Amino acid sequence: MTKEIWKNIGYGTIITLVIGAAYFIVITYNDVNKLFNYNLPLLNAEHDEFRNSISSLKAEFESKFDNERTKEDEFMLINKAYEDIELSKRNFDRIEIKINDQIIPSLNFLLESNKNTLFLIQKLNLIGDLSDSIRRLNFFIDSLVAELNKSMKSKNDTNEQYPKNMLKEISDIIPAQELAVQETYNDLIAEADAFFSKEQYEQAKLKYKDALNYKPEEQYPVQKIAEIERLITDFETLKANYLKLIADADEFFKAKEYSEAKPKYVEASALMPDEEYPIMKIEEINKIFKAEMLKIQQAYDKAIADADKFFSAKVYDQALDSYRIAKGTKPNETYPDQMINKIIKILDKNAVRNLISSPVNLENNKEKKFSFEPVLITDRKNSFIFIKAKNISNTEFKIVMSYGKDSSKKGGYILPIPAGDEVKEYIIPIGKQYSWFFADNNWVSLLPLGGSVEISLIKISREE
Question: Are the CB atoms for 81 and 141 separated by under 8 Å?
Answer without folding.
Answer: no
